[in-house]
């Protein structure tokens, strides 16, 4: 039998995803579960505590995805596997992307951790690019900070792709994630060498 705290987090995640953060209170979560708000408050005194737990769940899932990429046949396939898996993680916790600005404004703990996380992800990305260059999968930089700026474009896109889709009236589903992955992956294509292009094409067509 699941612990009450786990059920609270699962219920909150579904409500946040379906209704949006502004419409979901502790009382909403308690009523959906059929428990008293006092019972819920025993586990989480503030809604922010639930949001923080869900945020760190998401971070842990992404960390696991990155660590599992070592099974890929080459660094480019590993990168593409990570990118696609991350989209599924973001979909599972999509309220973060839909209510991203509000969360950053209201939750200093998440904001501080996210700022630190961005620096770590940038370092990991640049290390990956060095490996891709060593394997002659991507070309050398032709512009100042070209690959650092590629990372920045990528994280902006990953933070806001779900919000952009929703404002355009496009429903995000598990089935449609592949098309968004291809949109993002194509942004990497101009940097590939002939060898990299062949690996990319084989991966996409597999």
Automatic annotation (TrEMBL):
Domain of life, per lineage: Bacteria
UniProt entry tagged with the keyword Oxidoreductase: no
Domain HTH tetR-type intervals: 2-62
Pfam families listed in its UniProt record: TetR (PF13972), TetR_N (PF00440)
InterPro entries per UniProt: CTLH_C, Homeodomain-like_sf, HTH-type_Tx_Regulator, HTH_TetR, TetR
Record-annotated CTLH domain positions: 116-136
GO-annotated molecular function: DNA binding
SUPFAM superfamilies cross-referenced by the UniProt entry: Homeodomain-like
Keywords, in A-Z order: DNA-binding
Record feature DNA-binding region, as residue ranges: 25-44
Designated name of the protein: TetR/AcrR family transcriptional regulator
Native organism: Seonamhaeicola algicola
């Amino acid at each position: 039998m699941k612990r009450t705290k786990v059920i609270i987090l699962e219920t909150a995640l579904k409500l946040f995803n379906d209704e949006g953060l502004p419409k979901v209170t502790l009382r909403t979560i308690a009523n959906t579960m059929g428990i008293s708000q006092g019972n819920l408050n025993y586990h989480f005194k503030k809604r922010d505590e639930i949001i923080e737990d869900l945020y760190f769940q998401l971070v842990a899932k992404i960390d696991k995805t990155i660590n599992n990429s070592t099974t890929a046949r080459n660094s480019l396939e590993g990168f593409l596997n990570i990118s696609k898996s991350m989209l599924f993680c973001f979909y599972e916790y999509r309220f973060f992307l839909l209510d991203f600005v509000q969360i950053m404004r209201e939750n200093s703990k998440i904001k501080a951790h996210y700022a630190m996380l961005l620096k770590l992800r940038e370092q990991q990305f640049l290390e990956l690019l060095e490996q891709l260059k060593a394997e002659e999968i991507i070309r050398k930089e032709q512009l100042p900070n070209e690959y650092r700026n590629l990372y920045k474009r990528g994280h902006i896109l990953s933070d806001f792709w779900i919000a952009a889709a929703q404002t355009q009236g496009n429903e995000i589903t598990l089935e449609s994630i592949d098309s968004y992955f291809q949109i993002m992956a194509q942004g990497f294509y101009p940097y590939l060498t002939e060898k990299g292009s062949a690996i990319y094409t084989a991966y996409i067509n597999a």
